[in-house]
Structure formats: C-alpha cells, structure tokens
TrEMBL record:
Residues 14-184 form the RmlD-like substrate binding domain. GO terms for biological process: S-adenosylmethionine biosynthetic process. GO terms for cellular component: methionine adenosyltransferase complex. The lineage of its organism: Eukaryota, Fungi, Dikarya, Ascomycota, Pezizomycotina. This is RmlD-like substrate binding domain-containing protein. GO terms for molecular function: methionine adenosyltransferase regulator activity. Pfam families: RmlD_sub_bind (PF04321). It comes from Bombardia bombarda.
Length: 301
C-alpha cells in the first residue's frame, strides 16, 4: 500500500509503533530515528477499539508496526495460567488493530512468531524448513496457539504484513535476548533452530513495510543453529571461559509448564523478496559471529 492521503496525493511516510514500551519496539524506534524517518510510539491497548481508532485519527500514520503482544513474564509459561489476558492481547487486540488499520487504509506490519511449528518426520532438523503456507503443527503452548490462530485470520487482510520472528537476538545482553536467556539457564537443551538477529532483520521490516509488502514471511536468518553452537561462538568471541550444561528435552519438560517450539523455517520467500531491494540477510552462523563481534567491540561481556 502506498502512503496516500484521503484525496489520493502522495504523502511522506509516518510510522506508528504499537507496544511502544516493549523490547523490539525500542530497537525499531531507534532504527527509524537513525534513518531519519518520522516515527511515533503508542501504548494504547490494542483491544480497546475506540481508543485505537482515536489514536490512529490523532497520529495519522501511513504505517503501523505492531510490536505489541502478550509474551508472559518471566516467560510464556505465564500465558498458560492467564488465558483470557493472553487472548485479549494476542487475538482480540491484534485483530482489532489490523481491522482498524484496514478501515483507515493504513499498512499494518505485525511482529508475529515462527514458534508455531515443531520438527516432524517430513521436517527433520536436517531436512527442509517450514514454508509460509505450511499449516502450524505446534500447539504445545497457549501463547503459540493464540499466535497461530490469529495468523490464519489476519493473512486475509490485504493491508497486513506478518513477520514471523523466532528467538530474537540483540547486540547487547538484554534479558529478552535469546542468548542472555540460554546463557543464564542452569541447563540448556541442544537443538537446531531458526533465529532472528535483530540487527539483520529489523531494517528488512522497515524496507518491506515502506514498500507496502503484505502477506506472511518467515522472518529469521537463513539456516538453523543449535544452542551449543550459539554458546560456543559466545564463549569464543564474547566470554572466554564460559561453560554450560546440557539436558535432554525430557528433562527440560519437567521444569517448564508449556512446551517449547523447535523448528527450522525456510527463508526463501524472504530472501528472494529482499533481493529485489538489494538487501541481504546473512546465514545464521555468520550472523551470530558478526553479532558477537559487535558485542565484543562494544565491550559487552
Ligand atoms: N521476544 C521474543 O522472544 C519474541 C519472539 C517471537 C515473536 N515475538 C513477538 O514480538 C512482539 C514484541 O515482543 P517483545 O519481545 O518486544 O515483547 P515485550 O518486550 O513484552 O513487548 C511487548 C509490549 O506489548 C505491550 N502489550 C501487550 N499487550 C498489549 C495490548 N493488548 N495492547 C497494547 N500493548 C500491549 C506490552 O505492554 P505491557 O507490558 O504493558 O502489557 C509490552 O510493552 C510480541 O508480539 C511477541 O509475541 C517476540
């Protein structure tokens, strides 16, 4: 969707980030600002239709980026016991915001999740990754279930771009960074997964949004990387001497309430689209090396 005013003339893009106090929202805002683009944030509750419509009316964005969502604290286990609150944000709220944007002719990018799949016989870790049209097959957590259901509906809105992130990684050791999490666990499983290095992918989200792209995209770096591979790179580049202990999926199941998704996503659709804009996303092992080198250069240990 092009940014046009009510009378059809082109106007400058104005970006509005929903969930303005969130972790990914903060990174996105900084990136927009570094690109010299007009960006606003809001913390209006997505499920409050009147307030959402009033906010869209007030800010008059050409693009909304929805980085709001209920992820649970300290983790998704929270969603198991707080189902109504989780639905109000992740289902009612996400759909309401998309719908309000639709009726106002605003492009809406949704920061969704790829944690809606699990490895199966047709998709082993060393086999083909899941493509965007594969039906979800992971409902082991209420969080993932809400996200998968919403995707099935929201994909029919012609103003929505749905980006499936997985295990996002920032260049710092913020508590929400996947690396920070697994480096602090007493024991960690060791399974290859698709991951999203934010420094590589957030610029791509802006590129896709401002070009009016719509539809679903697996939004990770190409390939899959295991926990031990991540932690080995972390030890070798960022924190010499770092050690960790592994445990099995069966042992992990005893200390978590909701199951966790493990899967590889196929990124062909994303990389092909981004190539049209001359943008490349590094393979996940290379991306981690570069990410940890940036951490090291910033003096982070
Ligand atoms: N971090 C990950 O591992 C990960 C992975 C894949 C996808 N994602 C998705 O990416 C999005 C952003 O994640 P994040 O890591 O940045 O999470 P975050 O730090 O928890 O930020 C989410 C923000 O959304 C707000 N929010 C929650 N429900 C809302 C509602 N109904 N209306 C308005 N705002 C609401 C929260 O505010 P309150 O705290 O006040 O509720 C919070 O500020 C989420 O949709 C998440 O599901 C995250």
């Amino acid at each position: 969707m092009a940014a046009t005013s009510a009378n059809g003339t082109a106007r400058a893009s104005r970006f509005l980030i929903w969930g303005g106090e969130g972790w990914i929202a903060g990174h996105l805002k900084t990136l927009f600002e570094s690109q010299g683009k007009e960006v606003h944030t809001t913390t209006i509750r997505m499920e409050n239709r009147e307030a959402v419509l009033a906010e869209l009316e007030r800010v008059q964005p050409s693009h909304v980026l929805n980085a709001a969502g209920c992820t649970g604290r300290p983790n998704v286990d929270w969603c198991e016991d707080n189902r109504e609150a989780t639905m109000r944000s992740n289902v009612i709220g996400t759909l309401n915001l998309a719908d309000c944007c639709y009726i106002k002719g605003i492009h809406c990018t949704v920061f969704a999740t790829g944690c809606i799949y699990k490895y199966d016989a047709a998709h082993p870790w060393d086999g083909p990754g899941y493509v965007e049209t594969d039906p979800s097959n992971f409902d082991g957590s209420f969080y993932s279930m809400t996200k998968a259901h919403v995707e099935e509906i929201i994909k029919h809105y012609n103003n929505c771009l749905v980006l499936r992130l997985r295990m996002p990684v920032s260049d710092d050791l913020h508590p929400r960074n996947f690396v920070t999490k697994i480096s602090k666990y007493e024991r960690v499983v060791d399974i290859p997964n698709s991951n999203t290095i934010l420094t590589d992918l957030l610029p791509a989200s802006i590129l896709l949004a401002e070009h009016g792209e719509v539809g679903i995209y697996n939004f990770t770096n190409p390939g899959a990387i295991s926990h031990n591979e991540v932690l080995t790179l972390f030890r070798d580049i960022v924190r010499p001497g770092f050690t960790w202990k592994n445990f099995s999926l069966e042992e992990q199941a005893k200390v978590i309430k909701a199951d966790r998704s493990n899967c590889k996503l196929d990124t062909t659709k994303l990389t092909t689209k981004l190539a049209e804009y001359g943008y490349e996303v590094p393979e996940i092992h290379d991306a981690y090396s570069q990410c940890f080198e940036r951490m090291k250069a910033a003096g982070i240990q």
